[in-house]
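note to self: dont lose this again. the chain is below, predicted strucutre after it. 201 aa total, dont forget to put it in the shared folder this time
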Amino acid sequence: MMMPRPQALNAIRADTQSLGFDMGSPELTGSLLCTLAASKPGGRLLELGTGTGLATAWILKGMSADSTLLTVDTDAQATAVAKKHLSEDARVTIKTQDGLELLKALQGESFDFIFADTWPGKIDKPELALDLVAPGGIYIVDDMQLGWKEQIERPVTDLILGVWEGQRRLMKLLETRTDFVCTSLEWSTGIMICTKKASIT
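---
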């Protein structure tokens, strides 16, 4: 079972294909994000890696009217698509800037939901994103299947090797973080969901 699609999704997908952008989140991941976003009424949500707004649309669909979403990406062409279709929603702020710079600027703040779908906050300096998660908040990463599935399906490039190494670092970091409870799912592109404990026991 999957949630009904966001209204803007088809138009975003059409513009995504015209742009030749091939790194958007699949619908299974989007449906999960929609469900998880709905668990944070009145919450502050953060998306690292807007892309063209495919996942952003799903997150917005699940959010309550009094929730807010901050989403960031360095790709101006991609975020232009997201802004075109989603910026009329007053709940969302779409930034075109380096995600690592934003994470550094946000330190000391807190978010109830963080979806890390780009290098900053997942492959590069994941601790900066984890430190922003509020008690009871959730941290979600996708594309965690790359290390065990695509190894036999794609040529191994330096980029893929870098992602695999980043995955291993993230897994090791999460194993040492006693303030998070995490579950890995070999589903969709490989999902990991972590919840920050209200207190450490």
